[in-house]
Each structure stands twice: as structure tokens, then as C-alpha cells.
Amino acid sequence: MVTPPPDAGPVQPNGDHTVTVFGLNLSIADIVLCTICFSLVAFAVPGVAGAFSVGRVAVLLVVIPAGLAVLLRMARRDLAALILVASVAWCIVTSALSPAPGLSMLGELYVRSGALNWAGAAAVWAIARRYSGPRTAEFLGWTLVGATALSSLVAIAQLFVQPGAGFLQLREGRPTGLAGHAIYVGAHASACCAWFAYRQLHRSSLTNVVGVFVFAAVGSAIGVRTAVLVSVLATLYVAFRARTVRAVALPVAVFFGTVVGTFAPSGSGTGSGSAVDRVASDGGLSVRLDLWLAGLRAWIDRPILGWGEARYLEATQSYVPIDFLRQAPWRDAHNLFVATVVGQGIVGLVLLVGFLAVAGRRARGATAWIALALTASLVLQPTPPATLALAALMLGVATSSPKTVISTWTPATRAGAIGLVVVGSLLAGSYVVAARSLSSVAADPTADASLPAHMFWFRYDPHTAATIALSRGTQAVLGNAAPDTVLSWRRRAVELDPESAGQHGELAFDLAYYGELAEATAEARRSMELQPHNPLALRALVVVASTSGDDELLRAATDELCEFGLEREFVSCEP
Questions:
Q1: Three-class SS of residue 310?
Q2: How many other C-beta atoms can be found within 10 angstroms of the C-beta atom of residue 90?
Q3: Which of 114, 243, 471, 529 is a good FRET partner for 276, with 20 to 30 A between their CA atoms?
Q4: Are the C-beta atoms of 309 and 104 separated by less than 8 Å?
Q5: Confidence category of residue 559, pLDDT binned at 50, 70, 90
Q6: What pairs with residue 21 in β-bridges?
Q7: Taking the complete model, does pTM exceed 0.85, yes or no?
Q8: From the CA atom positions of the chain, what is the Rg in Å?
Q9: What is the rounded CA–CA span in Å between residue 38 and residue 148?
Q10: CA end-to-end span of the chain, whole Å?
């Protein structure tokens, strides 16, 4: 239950908006918030490419119009809401002024890390803050447990079945559950552990101990170190605070749950293995520290406006260690605060910290623990809707006032609310339709480098253009597409994100492959200006040199490639 502040007045009944669901007396707001919670954790749309992200973005789009309207009204009398309005506005401004405004505003293909994700989290917080009642925390907690249990069952089944294809295939050797990635399943599991720990602190029960054991085992089985760490810290705090034998049972449950999780089979990818195995492996905190240091150096270049949301890769591409060039690029800071200061500058960071300070000071009850656990995961992991919006939802409930009860709706208010929900539903529907259309556009060799009007959500995403270009390249090899279609989509990707070394490098390589040597050389040089020693650009120069017979250029590009240990992939570095 939410613990009201000491000065809270009596709670007024809300019978006009209470319904009975499975014998439970729930307000309409409770049903809405629980639906959002369940959807953010375990909502999938089979048959849609990138199904897991599509479903969550659709949920955010439904609530954004109504949520932002509520937020603007709250800002007149609520400091936290006022700061959040300023934060969303600043995020939109910095994203619109970035060199890739489409990417910054709407986010990357299926990964809504742009201003859209930020606005969605703010909208969800406002709805939860304004309309949640004193019973909402209990309902939300059990909703989270149920949704995470369902997602966890899928994840464990993936470990045993090891699917290599389909929308439930392993990702980098790790299960996705119904969250799209193991790290998000782990974040939800750690939030459940925190919720059960809070319940044990106030009312001891065997159910709480079992819950902690189960979700600690889930975090260990799928190999998420952050989940195990958060679970351990939450239960140790309860044991220290309560100082009873029953409270000590929680750390014991975490220990045995973690041990049991290590017996689950692991995948074959580089990220596979239990959390205990991965704690002893490389590539964890040290990699993140390098990434954060590169982000801080990039922030110094643009300290006020930042680089725009969803552009962390472009911001840090000239500062990451050379070792990073040997692996798939990290497109996210894996830290909420570093990502914010790089994307939105120092103003954005100050607004974020200010909001968390004001809202966190008011936070009470079980959902405050859930929000804290999810925020802890955001310090070491990316910030998708599966975590960011869910944390905002829980924080909104934790900061709600028991005095806030909506007992009457005027006809104008009701009509306005319905209208905003309809607008949001239309936006969500258009997004789902656009997502479903992407595969058909990619498969159509006759489509030019501009998406149809109904695919607005992806028309300005350079990664969408690059994905279609890759599909065109495969079709061209099979004789089903002309080289011009490949190059037109590559050029489109560069136009949408002119500061991306990767996009320039990909264009350079395709130009070289199709014999456009002069333009290929220029694009490769531009790519290396943005990111020295870029492997894609060097590969393009190797093709240019081999085709034109430039032995000096061939030797220079090959020697530099060999320094990265890429001879098995592209060139021979035999003496």
C-alpha cells in the first residue's frame, strides 16, 4: 500500500469511477495504469518486424496527447510537473536543432530513444501522478509481477529450446522474453524483487520470500548482473532496517535464487552465461567507463545544446577507443545521466536531476521502490520505453497525493479526454501500419529513396534507409535490383545523418563496389574525418585501390586494417 504523507487529509470516495474486475474494486484510473504497466512489460505484436518495440511505442503514442495535456495543467501548481514540462520542451528544442532532427525527434528504427520516448515517459508520469489513488500501488505491484512472470517464463523457455529464428529467437545468445532483450527482463525482475522486499519490510510473509527467490533466479539465469546487484542491495537494506530473522530471509533467498539460476542452460552468443559467470568476464563496467568518458569528451564539444537525442554514437565516434571499432557499435550511453548530458547538454541534465530531486523527495510506498530499482538499471543500461516509461509510471504513483481524487467530470472535460485518446489511438495505429509496411518496402526493388506518406514515422530515420539499402544490396547481387536503388538509399541515409561516420563509410563501400571510385574516395575520407581509422572507410579504400591499381593506397589501407585484426573478415595480413 502507498504510505500517505503525515499531513495527508482523508481520502474521499470515488464511487462514480469504481468498477468491479474479478471481484476487485478498481477505479478506471487503476485499470488504465495497470494496462499501461502490463503493456510496457509484456506486450508483443507477433507478425510485426521489431514487434516488441512496436507494441510499446504504440502504447506511448496512445497516452502522449492526453498525458501531456494533464502535465501542462499540473505545471501551474506542481513544481515537479513544471520542471518536467521544461525538460520535455528542452529535449524537443535540442533534438530539432541537431544535424539529424528526424532521428533525434522520433528515435532510431524500433528503438525509440529520441524525444518521442522522453515525451512518452513524461505523459505516463503525469497520468499516474494525477489520477492514481491509495490502492493503485498494490494493483500495480501485482500487475508488474504477473507481467514479468509471463515474460520470464518465455525467457527461461528460450534458454532450454534455444530458438535460432522467429520473433522469439535468442539475441546475442541471450533470451529476450517478452521485453525484446535480456537486460529489460532483468530490470523488470529486479523491480519485482524490490517490491517484494518492501512488502516484507512492512508485513512479513512467505510469499515475499518466495517472490524474491524466484526473480533473483530469473536475473541470474538470463545473465543480467544489474538485476542481481539491485536485488541484493534491496534485500540487504530490508534486513538492516528490520533487523529480524524474517527480514534476513530475503538476502538468503537472493543468494539461493542466484545459485539456482546458474544451473539454467546458457546460449551460444558472446553475451550468454549466468549473471555470476558474466561478473567474472570482461566487457562490463570497464567498457561502460570508456563509453562514458567518450561521452563526456563529446559533451565538451557541445556543452549547451548537446548533440540531440538518439545520437550518442555520432557524438562519441571520434573519441571511443580503437578496440571499440572491432565490435558492433554501441548506440546508447548505457547511462541515463550521461546520455542526457550528451544529447541535451548541461541544461537538460540539470532539468532531469531537478525533476528527480523534487519528485523523489515526495515518493512514498511500494512503487517508489520499484521506480528506484528501475532507475538503478538505467544507470547501467539503455533507456527504452520498457524501462524508462515504466519507471516514470511507478514514480508518478509514488508521488501522488491521496487528496487527488477525480469524482466528477464535466461534459467538456469528458469530451476533451475522449478526443485526446482518439488522437493518440490514431497516432498509434499509423505507427503500427508504418512498421508493418517496412518489410514490404524493403522487399520492393522498384521503390525509390523516399517512403510513402503513411510511413512518416520512419521517413527521417537514417537507420531505416540503411536497412533498406542493405536489403537492396542483397537483391542486387541476385539480379533483382539495380545498383542505383542501393546507392540512392545509401545517399538518403547520409542526408538524414550527415555527421555519421558509419553512414558515410557504408556509402563509400557501396560506391567503390559499383565502380564510383572518385565519389567513394571522397566519402571514405569524410568518414575518417568524423571517426579516424574507421574500418568501413578503410575497406572502401581497399576496394578503390584494388580497382584503380593504386598500390600505395592499397598498402596503406591494408596495413591500417591489419592493425585492427580484421584480416579474417576482409584482407589478408600474412607477411
A1: coil
A2: 21
A3: 243
A4: yes
A5: confident
A6: 24
A7: yes
A8: 25
A9: 8
A10: 70
